[in-house]
Amino acid sequence: MSDKLARGIWPALVTPFTDDGSALAPERVAPLIGHLLEQGSKGFFVCGGTGEGIAMSVSERKAMAEATIAAVSGQVPLILQVGATATDNAVELAKHAAQAGADAVASVAPVDRPNDLEAAVAHYTAIGAASDLPFYIYWLAASAEQGITAERFLEAMEAVPNFSGLKFTDSNFYLFQRLVNLAGDRLNIISGPDEICLGGMVAGSDAAIGSTYNIMPKIYVEMRQCFEDGGIRQAMALQDRANQVIATLFRFGILGGIKALLSMRGLPVGPPRPPHTPLDETAQAGLQEALNKLAFAVE
């Protein structure tokens, strides 16, 4: 795959809800997209874990897809995560994604049969066949078949129509690098964990997709540029900065913290839905105070 869809830094886009979280707020998508594009984002991953796809109805996910595609307006590519639901729903969402103008679709393993390669292949095959769009597998460490080799995984995926790439959210970068090496230019390989974004680059990632890119895209964009320019020390320092922010977010709740910070910055996106916990006013003040103590700008 010489012309790979995903390159550089892609926020795993948060989904904007109303202030009480009860409904999608599509009018809040465009300002968020505009801000992230200004900071150098090269694409968007929509309705994944950070985008709370699993907590949304099929109709809400379709509306979010349409709002995002309209806001992006072809400036950068986007991948719609259509899984985290029953296979029939995922197929419906994949068909809608093609009609709406998405660049690709992705899916996690079937939610009712995690750690089961055979079930995953059946699920992915149905989704991949639902449209002509490139299909990306969203590898999550908790739901992938345990102990699988890169060779066995890639062999199994030969049955999946339009299989074009992989978002790898796992800390096993030996396996990640084996996938990169074996796939060569055939697949678009993307790293997932924000806290080891630089490790993904070293292991050969084409792109990185992450949650905290919503609130500090400039740090990650600069990290990627430094790495590509050979400035590994500078890239290491930027990963350390990102991890100081991530460590702070862990104290308050990652998704609740990200959505609270965006709202505090004038980009209201509403609270997260259960099982995630929104930050109350005291927690928001505490998070902002903790970030203000850092010796760099979180942007």
What does this structure look like?
Helices cover 44% and strands 12% of the residues. The chain has a single domain, classed as Aldolase class I (TIM Barrel), CATH 3.20.20. By secondary structure, the protein is an alpha/beta fold.
Outline the fold blueprint.
Layout: E1 8-11, H1 29-38, E2 44-46, H2 58-72, E3 78-81, H3 87-100, E4 104-107, H4 117-128, E5 135-140, H5 150-157, E6 163-169, H6 173-183, E7 188-191, H7 197-202, E8 207-210, H8 217-228, H9 232-252, H10 254-264, H11 281-292
Parallel strand pairs: 1-8, 2-3, 3-4, 4-5, 5-6, 6-7, 7-8
By secondary-structure content and strand pairing, the structural class works out as alpha/beta
**What's the overall geometry?**
globular
Low-confidence stretches: none
Helix content: 40-55%
CATH topology: TIM Barrel
Number of domains: 1
Kindly report how far apart the N and C termini lie.
33 Å
Q: How many distinct helices?
A: 11
How would you sum up this structure in a few lines?
The chain has 299 residues and is of the alpha/beta class. The protein has one domain (8-251): Aldolase class I (TIM Barrel). The protein contains 11 helices and 8 strands.
